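Appendix C reproduces, verbatim, an entry submitted by the partner laboratory led by Prof. M.T., so that reviewers can inspect both the input and the predicted structure.
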Amino acid sequence: MSWIHSVLFLFLTFRWCVTGESSPEVTDDGAPMEKTEQEALYSAIQGFVGDSWNGSDLYPDPCGWTPIQGVSCDLYGDLWYVTDLTLGLVHENSLSCGASLKIKPQLFKLKHLKSLTFFNCFTSPITIPKEDWINLASNLESLEFRSNPGLIGELPETIGCLTKLKSLVVLENGFNGKLPTSLCNLTRLKRLVLAGNLFTGTIPDCFNGFKDLLILDMSRNLISGTLPSSIGEMVSLLKLDLSNNHLEGKLPQEIGFLKNLTLLDLRNNIISGGLFENVVKIRSLTDLVLSGNPMGSDDMMGIKWENMGNLVILDLSKMGLSGEIPLGLTSLKRLRFLGLNDNNLTGTVPSRRLETLPCLGALYINGNNLSGELEFSRKFYEKMGTRFKASKNPNLCQHVVSEAQQYVVGLKSCMMEKTEGSSVIKQTWSNLKEEDESSSSMGVMVTRHVLLSNGFMWNLLLELSLILLLNLLVC
């Protein structure tokens, strides 16, 4: 031990003798840790890792020369205290949780704890304590439960006493029941993630105080009811994901107040009432996903899509939308994904204008009532590959150079014109009709338009030519 460490040791020993304070644990490198703090840490970890784990032997100096993976400390006065605790295999050398674990009360004696994370710890059914959380209220800023299928029961109301929380992540666990109303107390939150659980009931209508919230994710639950109007009070919100729930009714007008929102994902709910124009007023949006909601026969032409120039992803599939594909979509130069499939869209496809979108990498227009001819270039089809679908549009066809080429599976080729002299013959080849097993001949429909006016002889010669052509095709 160096002379500096010796002097420090003597000084601390003298101070504790004079003041009568309990003697702290002094580590080999001279960094003292309060003994009750160290004992609470060892006991808490032992409850998760197993009784065979002995921290005093393996990690005599958890905040110094022998740190524990997942444990971080900070100095308060002259003593070390635990500030961050992560349990579970976050890293290869992290402490793994045992098969039969328990949450010991010593965990809640770590009075300077700022961050607490459980990652893939709870695999067997267990409920978390309800009363002890208030002991961490003075310092805890981050609380995360990630991938713990064994965590069941309701989220305790006492979570609402952690009023200094800036991040609450409850992701992919087994929690169920209604969301605690005490969540309304956590107005300092910047991130609230409750995704991938079994929460039921409605969303609390108390977001008027959440001025600093940046991320709200309640996706993949069983939440029902309508979207509360107070959601428009979260003026700093960047990401709103409520997808894969049972939300219903109309979108509140107040959603248009979220001027900083970049992602809005409401897919696979029961939201109705048409495409709300206030959504289009959020010009900061880069990702707008509303697919799988019965919006009804809303006409897309009434929306000024050209005002949403930041859109990168637009998914409006399976919504029952009608009308034509608006030309405003063709001005979205940043668009990479456009999903319009499985609606009731009609009219022609603005192929040439859609092809000019520089970033477009996926286009789905299948399952509609579109008509006319697709005029995309061969280069466009090769660029898209399987990320372009236009099948299941009975009156839509594709232009191909030869019969051997078919860019879109399940889509027929358009009428091809052949010019012979001053005669024009239009032929339609059906690519969808399957060959009859009992016959080796293919059905061919030929229509002709005689554009000559030089008398009967030319017509007769043309008729004979057509008969010979038919005979050759049948053979």
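The longest strand covers residues 79-87. Additional entries are available on request from the coordinating office.
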